[in-house]
Specification:
The chain is of the alpha+beta class and 139 residues long. The protein is built from 3 helices and 6 strands, in the order ββββααββα.
Length: 139
């Protein structure tokens, strides 16, 4: 059966709303490191080739610097992926880039565990370390 034209229309990555993300102050920058973990099972995007939905459990784990992400803004940001055609391997990288750029945490990790499609499960984990990034930029 031939796919009807225009049935699955995905938006480009420019539809991801990083501008919705807001930072709030973190008051406990001195003392022992604080690990913050956010999880959602409601993340969705679409396959850029088929337009079929991808569903993932997203875990964001970080040690803040001076800022935290405001949770409502994070939820709205993640919802903006809903109709975006993006590879499963790319979405955690994009989330990390946007959050690390806003927050400048000491360390951050974004993991996506996608539901099985076509008999294959995908799990992607990407990490950011402020010290490593700064040393890479100096080269």
């Amino acid at each position: 059966m031939k796919m009807p034209e225009g049935l699955f229309v995905a938006q480009g990555e420019e539809a991801i709303r990083a501008d919705l993300l807001e930072a709030i102050p973190f008051d406990y920058t001195s003392g022992p490191p604080t690990e913050v973990v956010y999880e959602t099972e409601e993340f969705t995007s679409v396959c850029p080739w088929t337009g079929l939905p991808d569903f993932a459990h997203i875990t964001i784990r970080y040690i803040p610097g001076e800022k935290l992400v405001e949770l409502k803004s994070l939820k709205l940001y993640l919802i903006s992926f809903r109709n975006v055609g993006i590879l499963q391997e790319h979405s955690p990288n994009r989330i990390l880039r946007d959050l690390a750029g806003l927050l400048r945490p000491r360390r951050m990790e974004v993991e996506a565990r996608f539901r099985e499609r076509g008999g294959i499960k995908t799990q992607v984990k990407v990490e950011y370390h402020r010290e490593k990034e700064e040393s890479w930029q100096q080269r």
